[in-house]
């Protein structure tokens, strides 16, 4: 065991702070550690799919707890909440949770007759052109049609940033459309051209948008394409300038598919692939294979998917690459998806010394992350655990539930390959897994939902780990009570479905405090 090259955590603090002793029980009956309000909100926010039921918590109860926590923080530290909401939307990729946090934070402050920060809170949550309508739809459903000034102005600020011709083509749908947003919030256009776009969006909403202003070139080009007779449309794919013509008209692959009708052939895909966004490419790998897209085109897709800069800009969560890998029938995507996954896990550190990585494979980890997803918390845990183990100098990777077992992970192997070796293991006997596998490691990392069994040798699942050895819990569910204390020099809790907070581990081990990631 190392004598000198050991983590130095004395005095280092982390942001997620709990009480030193248990105050309740986990859902499985072990003593549970409550966190302070900001810590509980943060842990819940980074895993909260609004309106979705989790294994232990009903959707309505979970949503209500989230709203309550947001309201408490909004009354006491709106600047912190604005930073959290912006980070939650931009870095953690949690769209719905950001919208709800902004709306509920503003309402709590208005009820408390507090001003300042409310407009910024709304603006911080809105990063895509459909999100102003999403926030207003949520507000109408919760609080009625009347809009307070901070909501109007915050949404208006976002509209000025986000509304353009291509946004109108792609995102003008739902119950609250672009024209509705504009009539409800009255934003001042940033340019005369945007002013014409605003007027056209309102006209279109009321069924009188047939005449497109001359300044809106993309919308005019689209209108010309849509006017082509159905029998002449597929011939467009054979033109050498087809990709440019479609791109100039803002035709997404979805709209083009509906416009053409009939089967989506290799010619169709090869025409639209150059203009497809990153996430659209990732979601359609199976369709490309089924249509017979050529290897030459597939190589260009692979290069785009694996490009680290594109990965960073896309903000795609690591688990999406696992989903794409499982869905794609052809092995030609395996290597680019692995490279893309590696790039999406750029914040996972290469830990020195010996690391014990424990991955929770209990039944509660296997519920879907959302009703529209086949991915589970168990998938996320396997991805993060495998990535940590493969990057560490020396790691023992272990899966646990009611039983526990090592997971082979050799240097140079793919995360996607290692993930395929995990199994489902029933209950959550965290303490037994720690006791069985801790052998003087320099640190312990547990990826879990923290809903541990009480065990037969005491409640603390980390009792077998000496106090001087740092132990990190990566929480993937955001339940109220955790399996151990957090915030002190040797015990820390992080959370989320992205890699963002992994960067805190090296900071703590350098003896530095690691605050909120925003």
UniProtKB/TrEMBL annotation:
InterPro entries, per database record: TROVE2, TROVE_dom, TROVE_dom_sf, vWFA_dom_sf
Subcellular location: Cytoplasm
This protein's record includes keyword Ribonucleoprotein: yes
Family according to the record: Belongs to the Ro 60 kDa family.
Broad class of the protein's primary localization: cytoplasm
Gene Ontology cellular component annotations, sorted alphabetically: cytoplasm; ribonucleoprotein complex
Keywords attached to this entry: Cytoplasm, Metal-binding, Ribonucleoprotein, RNA-binding
Domain TROVE, residue spans: 24-353
Designated name of the protein: TROVE domain-containing protein
GO molecular function: metal ion binding; RNA binding
One Pfam family of this chain: TROVE
The keyword Transferase is assigned to this record: no
